[in-house]
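User: Okay, second chain of the day. Same drill as before: sequence in, structure tokens out.
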Amino acid sequence: MHRISLNYTLGPAAAPALVRNPLLDLLQAVSVQGSISAAARALGLSYRHVWGELKRWEAELGQPLILWEKGQAARLTAFAAKLLMAERQVQARLLPQIEALRGDLERAFAIAFDESAHVLSLHASYDQGLAALAEEARSGRLHLDIRFTGSVNAIRALNEGRCTMAGFHVRQPAAPDSLSRHTYKPLLRPGLHKLIGFARRSQGLIVAPGNPLALCGLRDLPRPGVRFVNRARGTGTRVVFDELLGELGVSPFAIRGYDVDEPSHAAVAQAVASGEADAGFGIEASARDRGLDFIPLVEETYFLACLKSTLDQSAVRALLALLGSSAWQRRLVSLPGYQPSNSGEVLSMSRVLPWWRFPRRK
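Assistant: Same drill. Structure tokens below.
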């Protein structure tokens, strides 16, 4: 039985929220570079060190890790490839929890080093744009304490006082009578809540490179042999997906894998990359990160909701200023499938969502 231990580092530079393992870093480098020497250069290590570590790990695990054939590139053994793929899947599934843990640590150290730093608690549907925003905010003494959860649970957390802001997303244009309306309208109240513009993003089918099954849309999912992976109930993406199925008249029960769900877009993409599924529904950025193809199906707006009474808080004002900055908007555009959308503007719910209609005063 091999036990797992975790550690973390402190430093001024932002880095992806990953739990790193030296062995898996070595295997990844060898897989990409095709030789020990090239892998060592890519990692900034000596050939002797990388060779020695691989041999040490082979002895520790009792399994060969690298296939050596004269005149051919170094390749991972089936065991090593399986180990690397399993680790990627676990990292993708745990990404929301890892982000939350890093947020806890960063908030603690931010307060320890600078008691005047702004800290803003945010529960939100998982989004790569928000993860990038948190990194951007750190340079301005604003620390976003993000808890990634489903859109519904995020707004409930806001209403119960467990966070200052909640992130959720809806299709554009938002239909007056839709599953989104029935899901979010009971949770939001004009006059009590305000929406802050964040981004527009693209969602669609995440498929293997080259789209080998020639999938074009959701109507293709019930085809024999197509394995699908879903997002969990209560997530905004699941709401959008079910809404689209209803409009197309596609029965969820006809889709193999409809009840198989993953906790994040990254985990959905990794399930497709590993061959566990043929298609998933998610954001373009997660597909591109893993070299997968993407079939855009819907544009949606991602909003940040808060109580009107919190708009004057210093942390909220700092966030609005950051969202409206040109530096942040340039970074957002660099993410595949993202565009700014009234970023940093305080919006009236009755103006941007067609779920409330009030008679005009005469």
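Residues 78-113 form the longest helix (36 residues).

User: Thanks, on to the next one.
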